[in-house]
Amino acid sequence: MKRRKFVTTAMAAIPLSINLSQAEAIQRDDKGFKISAGQGRIHGHIQLMGVNVNILDVKVSGRDTNGDIAVFEQTGLSPKHGTPMHVHHSQDEIFFVTEGAYDFVVGGIRHKLTVGDSIFLPRKTPHSWVQVSERGKMIVTLQPAGQLEDFFVTVSKLKSPPTDKEMAKIFEDNGMTVVGPPISVE
After folding, report:
1. Which CATH number describes the domain made up of 45-182?
2. Element (H, E) at 137
3. How far apart are the C-alpha atoms of 163 and 84, rounded to whole Å?
4. DSSP annotation string for 43-76
5. Does residue 23 register a pLDDT over 50?
6. Cα–Cα distance measured from residue 137 to residue 87, given in angstroms and rounded to the nearest whole number
7. What pLDDT, in 10s, does the model give residues 58-106?
8. What is the pLDDT of residue 11?
9. DSSP secondary structure code for residue 99 in this structure
10. Which of 88-92, 109-113, 164-168 has the lowest mean pLDDT?
11. Distance (Å, rounded) from C-alpha 25 to C-alpha 104?
12. Whole-number pLDDT of residue 6
């Protein structure tokens, strides 16, 4: 008898959760917004301190989309540096190179990207990238937004470069896991 009541209650809640998601989407600002070139939304420029010292500008925050998507512009100021091999447990990523050159390793395969190239990184797939050129720039899109924005804000507040262990904890605290060292420029 208790099981029947539980199943009935659980089934009744499903349409409610769907309707709440639709209601949240309806409550978004219907006017949109513009972010000018060289500007970051909410945080201004985020100067990273950690695996690199790049500048990150939030173009579309997960807060703008109820967590559906986030878009960042990353200005690469760290030649021959990138990220450790890591996994996003719940987000797909797309990188679009607008300046410079980068190498990516995704699922064990190395890809060389230059201006105009894009790469898709499926969630749960180990990946890393390294900036090959002296300077670079990429547009990074995450779907769903996840916690990467919080990761960047946390890393920007560091007073000194973190140890590998400290960096791995920051990754873990923000929905990612470090699974290997950074890749190097070939």
Report:
1. 2.60.120.10
2. strand 136-143
3. 12
4. T-EEE--SS---EEEEEE-GGGTTTS-EEEEEEE
5. no
6. 22
7. 999 999 999 999 999 999 999 999 999 999 999 999 999 999 999 999 9
8. 44
9. E
10. 164-168
11. 34
12. 43
Burial of 14 (C-beta count, 10 Å sphere; 0-12/13-18/19+) = exposed
Using CA atoms, how far apart are residues 2 and 176, in angstroms rounded to an integer?
39
Take residue 32 and report the two structure tokens written for it. 């949109």
pTM: 0.82
**76 touches 100 (CB < 8 A):** yes
How far is 183 from 179, CA to CA, in rounded Å? 12
What CA–CA distance (Å, rounded) separates 40 from 15?
37
Residue ranges covered by each domain of the chain: 45-182
Distance CA 186, CA 170 (A): 28
pLDDT of 4 reads 54
Can you tell me the distance from the alpha carbon of 71 to that of 93, in angstroms, rounded to the nearest whole number? 10
